[in-house]
Amino acid sequence: MYSVLLAYGALHWGQWMENRKTVKLRGVAPVAESGAWGDLLTYDIRIEQPKEYAAFEDTAKERPLWHFGNIPAEEVRAILIQSGLSNAQADSALQPAFVSTHEQGTTVSPSAELVLSLSPQARSSLYQHLSGIPANRYHAAPFFVPKGDAHRLFIGDKGATPETIRLVEKLLYYRNGYAFFSDPELIFARIQTKEQRLDFFQSLTGQNAVLARLLIKPTADIDKLIGYWCPTVAGVRIRDLRPLLEAEQRLPDGGHVSLLYLLPPLARERLYTFPTPSTDPNERQPDCHWTALNFFNPKPDPRYGNPNEASRAVVENYYQIAKPGIPGDLVLLVNPRGHVIHSAVHIASDLTFTKNGINYAVPWILMRTDDLVGTYSHGEPVHAVYYRRKEL
Fold first, then answer.
1. 3 state DSSP class of 241
2. How wide is the angle at C-alpha 203 spanned by C-alphas 199 and 209, nearest 5°?
3. Crossing angle, helix 73-82 and helix 120-130, to 10 degrees?
């Protein structure tokens, strides 16, 4: 991590299958968003990892585990009480049958009844403590639930019954104004088949994304559109874009073009796709910094996968601005100490081009800034700051 100093369109269904992705529309009507970028028609969707990637997950676990590190059981009790659990709840968690002490420390395997009995406040506080121990995977990296609406995650999912969705809602907790979920084991134990558990996990691991097209009305100001998209976006040339926009404009009711035509090669080739897993265990997968800092590069620079090189690139090539206004402005999420924990690229309106993590099961997507902030607000609060290339 480095400090602050420092479209959907021409893709047809064959390409979607070829890139091994699953996109589920959630019944949300498109939204028209107008500004300097023109008129965008956007669809909010959930994009899910391919089932063959989700199948790597062990969905057979029947009970959660709380790893407390190398501390004795009496200190675990103090943590539980400080987190807001009652004496009775702490007694339940620390029954001898549920506590294990080993080389890695003390582990508690709470009953489903205890986990369900926690208030959202106690759950948030306890899980905040657990998140500091990497063995607590789903607490260190919980599932973001946009607007706390579990129904939006599972529409059309064969693995999520109404009862399952109500259970997820009961297990939600809030931190920094956003909702999260960290107890998939309780759901796995209630789903009958492996296939249904994979369906559930596939929906749970999906990300809020946006499909976007640029509307070209008969009255559109083509020069204004070109003035927004062409000067700063490498690979988007006036001689290519103008004839296409004018052709769409001449249609009786106007037309629309894929946002892919308005993005540089790196984004155009990767948007809504997943990295291919490497056979080299020493090869570093592309992350958010690699993605953001290579946005304009015809050939990606592998150095930007190194945090120190990414930091140097920001210091040498960018300056801070109050708000984003042109495609390619950096969107950096920073914590209270001013450290960047995520990088993305502003495209238009509140849309960013992002890759949320180094995992190959995470695609490159367009995402709304508030959802991006929420995704990274499970620990400390984060906020967005913006940078622009010095030559622009």
1. helix
2. 150
3. 140
| Rounded CA separation 312/327 (Å) | 22
Which residue in 138, 170, 145 sits closest to 64, CA to CA?
Answer: 138
| Rounded average pLDDT over 152-172 | 85
Question: What percentage of the chain carries pLDDT values higher than 90?
Answer: 67
pTM over the 0.85 mark: yes
Query: Residue 374 has what DSSP assignment?
Result: H
Give the amino acid at 191.
I
Beta bridge partner(s), residue 40: 33, 214
Q: How many CB atoms lie within 10 A of CB 120?
A: 15
Neighbours of 78 (CB within 10 A): 11
Q: Residue 109 phi/psi, 5° resolution?
A: -110, 85
- Single-letter residue type at 73: A
d(CA 75, CA 212): 52
2: Cβ contacts below 8 Å, ≥ 6 apart? 289, 307, 308, 310, 311, 314, 339, 340
Averaged over 344-353, what is the pLDDT? Answer: 97
Dihedral angle, C-alpha 312, 315, 316, 318, nearest 10 °: 130
Residue 371 parent element (H or E): helix 369-375
By the 10 Å C-beta count (0-12 exposed, 13-18 middle, 19+ buried), 316 is classed as: exposed
In terms of Cα–Cα distance, which of 239, 234, 387 is closest to 319? 387
